């Protein structure tokens, strides 16, 4: 274990004792919440804004609440990444939009293959992997396709933009292969990116399950005026279910959330379960798929994942439009319908989610309507 990670592991443990979150783990943790399930106190579903920019990109995936104003970024606004282009071809979306709580949508960035300053095998197809690091550095995953089909998907990369939406670098290779979702944790002049990958042998599997999905921890050095510098990559999770799918593009480990104490929760979509990787900030070997926290029950292809202020795990289902709240001990304590459209109701509608500031609700994208919505 590096000196940096020894120090941060100790700090995370201390944060649990005093009840305070660190870095980027728990954006709403400072707010005292009523007892009982977190989502149990919310009754309303509100449309905030369309996520479709001027170029017509659809299928919103990633959601991230901006915590500090810098450049074009405004505190309290929500960034949303789009996976499809205007022709609804998966793996071809190129835009990130910024939405205010009041419903104003603006274009934060449109990323073209020509604008990439470094390697990104296959080009641009923005995924749920979306975070903002200190200094306003926006990191987004790309899992691109040539024609919207998983058969032409390539390894992609992580794309780093500055706070004004300008692409500044790419992070490729080193195990990055279909970056699908991401969470981040910052400490001093460093940050860890936890990235799920879904293309390790998946395309070659031709539609058959392949158990090679990974979770990588990328340690980056942060600088005020230049992009983060990759310092180390560690595979902390491996052996996850992956499979190409005609409607879902690819099924694999999706949402990730880092809890106080350093446990990383993973939505293991293909096996309909949530797993936990212990000591995620400090471990130097893979935990495999981790310990099973919960499976089945109200889960139905869990995709996006976030940690609630009370420490419970929030997931949204890809197959039926439900949000499910699970305790760290595995009890599914609450659920609510976020979408009932389509056939079957809610199928294919949900992906990314994020806890609203001060724990006032849950932002989520509704792919059926291409809207950012709020449960509150």
Structure described in brief:
The chain has 376 residues and is mainly beta. 4% of the residues lie in helices and 44% in strands.
Intertermini distance = 41 Å
Q: Look up the CATH topology.
A: Neuraminidase
CATH top-level class = Mainly Beta
- Oligomer classification: single chain
Overall morphology: globular
Task: Tally the helices.
Answer: 1
Number of domains: 1
Helix-residue proportion: under 10%
- Number-wise, the strands total 25
Strand content bin: 35-45%
The largest β sheet comes out as:
5 strands, antiparallel
Sequence-ordered SSE layout with sheet pairings:
Elements: H1 3-18, E1 45-50, E2 58-65, E3 78-84, E4 95-99, E5 105-110, E6 126-133, E7 137-142, E8 157-161, E9 167-171, E10 179-187, E11 190-197, E12 210-221, E13 229-245, E14 249-251, E15 253-258, E16 264-268, E17 273-277, E18 291-295, E19 302-307, E20 313-317, E21 322-326, E22 332-337, E23 350-355, E24 362-366, E25 371-375
